[in-house]
Amino acid sequence: MRIKRTDPGSGQPLATEELRESIKSAQFAETLSQLETPAANTSRSQAASASLALARTELAEIAQGVNFSDAAQTAMAVHQAARYLVRSRLQKKFQQTKMAAELVEGLSEFVATDPFLQTRLLSILTQLNNQAT
Q1: Is 63 exposed, middle or buried (0-12, 13-18, 19+ CB in 10 A)?
Q2: Do residues 81 and 57 lie in contact, with contact meaning Cβ atoms separated by under 8 Å?
Q3: Is residue 76 scored above 60 in pLDDT?
């Protein structure tokens, strides 16, 4: 599935590389960084800390029982994690719409197959799995 985006200023389609860079440099990458580090960072607000704790819990559940030496299980876990993270960034009122479901699926596929993001998600899942055992 292709997701066509346009630049609000010009109405021209955004380049795939531009979308990729915007995801890498936006809050998504920041969230990944926060998930990779221990919960020692106390500078976050209480709401942000609660959101991060929920994300950690969800990702730990995804990682639980995954055989990371099996490529199919690993790919499925990374895709599930990407889907959860993308969906969790949507406002509640949009999460149940058909358009949101299509957007979540498209962005999840993109995130799960992007080498940079895939590596980061896999690292987080492996770390959470190792902490659980």
Answers
A1: buried
A2: no
A3: yes
